[in-house]
Every structure is written in structure tokens, then in C-alpha cells.
Amino acid sequence: MDGKIIHDPLHGSMKIKGIILDLVKTPEFQRLRGIKQLGMAYLVFPGANHSRFEHSLGAYYVAKRLSEELELPADEKVLLEVAALLHDIGHGPFSHTFEQIYEHYVKEYDHMRLGQNMILGKADIIEGELEGRERIPEVLERYGLSPEEVAQLFLGRHGKHYLGQALHGDVDVDQLDYLMRDAHYTGVAHGIVDFERILKTLKIHEGELVVDEKGVEAVEGMMVARSLMYSRVYFHHTVKIAEGMLTRALEFALEEGHLWDFWKMTDCRVLVELEDLEVSREIVQRVKYRNLYKAAVLASADELSSEEKRELLTAYRNIKRRQEIERTLAELVGAKEGEVILEFSIADLMLSEPRLKSTEIGVHTHDGSVQPLTKVTPLANALKRRQTPRWAVLIASPSKYVDVIRQNWRKVLFR
To answer: Residue 324 region, left (φ>0) first, then alpha (ψ -120 to 50), else beta?
Structure first.
């Protein structure tokens, strides 16, 4: 079989065949067409309607190109390509939007754990049988690939460290695709990356993925792009308000005993289900028609004492505590439950993208030694220190409550 040609707006025409084509055909992978890559960002950036399906194909393509540049053996090349293709297979509706809910309401702790279990055949996200369609573990085994080995690499772990780094490292195939793709679809110029230069200067040295000294500027550019995209797009305060509102709607549904299988759903399905429930309908309709709450508080980390930061971290880790604070604030201003939402950026950022502060990729210098990037360029250290985004705590509500919340929020949070 000659395979299929897929025309991608970012990478151009890519040919897929064999195990990659058969994995793309699985219902688990096709489901990703219904999950937006950037959650609720389309409410702020109208072009941001691209899906996890597109990004996963893009990550595969970048892995293919990197494998060729590194001259990996055939078995390692296939393994990296497959793991890159499947790296987002466990994402639930609206991608990272409901990430915090998993630990508290669902037995699958996060999309990575769920994805690993899907690869191993321990979790089924597709209801019913589809005639003539294989599932992911069946495809892997038919091609002689171990689901266990793919699942380990999927989490960035492998006996050959450079393979794990290529998928989940300071500079990896996932980030290279999503930064360029998200910049393309949002129209934000910050995500521009010197893709070809990075690919051609990455190398394997003593079992580690490193960058040649000639590629330092390209890697710096990628890290600047990453930091700015988080400030400008991913943690745009209006995006986080929309995501927070939809999260509260889902929490209300779960507390009433509904939608316990939300993590299996696509974006459209979860919106329809939530809108059908009286407990979550009003919030969902607000989100659906972009009648969003307004920011009452956008406080930076510098405005908070160490004690206040600890209190906020406690509230972030404990959904019940956060809900209690929201209810107290709502009662104080005369709002209904769910009309005051509290969002945290720093802790949330570490959950959704722990690589953001990763700037330690090794640099292979002209004298043959390997130095961490932070020793080679001061920019890497500056990026580690940079607050991304600028706000640490956000409180939002309907506009009529904004002024009262702004005057009283500290009394409630830090009493």
C-alpha cells in the first residue's frame, strides 16, 4: 500500500503509511478531531479552532524529521514516531480546561495517565465496537511493537534517554509543533520558531539529546516564543475566565451525579450535555454566546506575601477549599453560587506545562564539552525567572459585582 497524503497548513504535504496510517484510522485517534487544541481560546482568538488531531499528526511529522536528522536506527525511528503521534491520545474535552478535575472526580488522574492506559489497553475511551476498526494496542502488536515500550516513551521514559528527551524534553517534537501551529491559528507572531535550524543542530552526545553550539540562538528563540505564547495566548485572562466558567459548570454537574464519563466526550458533546442540565445551563449559555464574566482582580505574584501565596496554593490543591472561597465571596456580594470564580496561574501552569521553566538542554561546545544552556547564555536564566503570565490570581464575576469584589477579596481569601 502506498499510503495517504495529508496536506497540513504548517508542514505542507506529509505522507503516512504502515503503522502510522493504521493508528490514525483507530477510533481513539479519530476522536481527537473533536477536541480543540487550545480549549476556550477561540473565544479570544477566532482562528484557534484547530484540533488535537492536527497537532498529533504534526508532532509525528516533526519526530520523523528529527529521526532522520539524528540518523536513528529503524526501530528507534518507528518508536519515536508512534509515541509522538499518540502523545495526546488521552486528552479529554477542551484539552487542558478540565485538567484539575481529573484528580478529584475521575479515577484517571490526568490525560497522560489516561493515554498510557489506552495504549496498554487498560482504558477504553470509545463506547461500543466499530466494525472493521482495530484499537491502538491491537495495531501496535500487529506491527510487532510493544505497547509497554510505547507507553513508557509516551511518558518521556526510556532506557535510551535521548528518545525520552526528544518527546518530553527542554526542546522536543511536541513543543516545536504546538508553538508554530498555535501561532499560525491564533495569528499571534510570538510563536515563530527557527524550526529547520533547531532540527539540524540537535544531536546525540553520550546518550543525551543536546544542541550544537551553532544552534543556541535558535533554541533561545524557541524558549522566548514559548514564554510569550503562555503570556499572550494560553494564559490570556479572558481565556482563563471562559475555562473557569466551563469548569464550574462541569463541577456542578458532577456534584449532582451527572457526566461522570465526561473525559470520554468530545467538546461538542460535553457542551450539549451540560446545557441540558438545569444546574449548569446558565453558565454554559454564557460561555456559548460569549457573555463572559469580567476580571475583578488580576493580582501579580509581587503583590502577594509569602503567606498569601501559601494560602492560594492550598486553595489550588484543594478544590473544596477553592469552592468554599468562591461561595463566601459570592455571598458577600449577593451573587449566586458559580458567579464568582477564582483562578490561579502559576500552579496551574506547572500542571499543564511543567516544561515551561526547562532551559537546561545541554550545549555541545566547540571544545567538545557539554554545558547546560543556562551556563552558555544569560537569556535562559532570565526566562526561568520571568513571571509567566503576569497575573498570579484572577477573580472574575458578572460586571455588577466587580467593584465590591475588588474591595473585599483579600478579607475573604486571607482572613
So the answer is: alpha
Q: Which three cell numbers stand for residue 49?
A: 479552532
8 A C-beta contact, residue 184 and residue 9:
yes
Worst-scoring range by mean pLDDT, 213-217, 234-238, 345-349, 365-369?
Answer: 345-349
Q: Mind listing the pLDDT tens digit for each residue in 36-67?
A: 999 999 999 999 999 999 999 999 999 999 99
Strand 12-16 relative to strand 294-299: parallel, antiparallel, unpaired?
Answer: unpaired
Q: What angle, rounded to 10 degrees, do the helices at 173-186 and 216-229 form?
A: 50
Q: What is the mean pLDDT of the segment spanning 294-313? A: 89
> Rounded CA gap, 256 and 278, in Å?
10
Kindly state which CATH superfamily the domain 4-235 is placed in: Hypothetical protein af1432 (1.10.3210.10)
Residue in the structure block whose three cell numbers are 501559601: 310
Helices (H), 168-277: 173-186, 195-201, 216-229, 237-255, 267-275
d(CA 256, CA 238): 28
Which percentage of the chain shows pLDDT scores above 90?
75
One-character DSSP codes across 153-165: HHTT--SSHHHHH
Residues 6+ apart with CB under 8 A from 183: 189, 190, 191, 192, 225, 229
pLDDT at 310: 84
pLDDT at 129: 66
Check if the beta carbon of residue 96 is closer than 8 Å to that of residue 55: no
Burial of 178 (0-12, 13-18, 19+ CB in 10 A): buried
Q: Judge whether residue 190 has pLDDT over 80.
A: yes
Q: Which one-letter DSSP state was computed for residue 231? A: I
Alpha-carbon distance values, 160 to 11, 31, 88 (Å): 28, 31, 22
Q: What is the pTM of this model?
A: 0.94
Does 372 sit behind a cis peptide bond, omega within 30 degrees of 0 on the bond before it?
no
Name which of 356, 284, 340 is nearest 97 in CA terms: 284
Q: Where are the alpha helices (DSSP H) in 87-172?
A: 99-105, 111-119, 136-142, 147-154, 161-167
Domain regions of the chain by residue span: 4-235, 293-345+389-415
Residue type, 327: R
pLDDT in tens, 116-165: 999 999 988 887 667 778 999 999 999 999 999 999 998 888 999 999 99
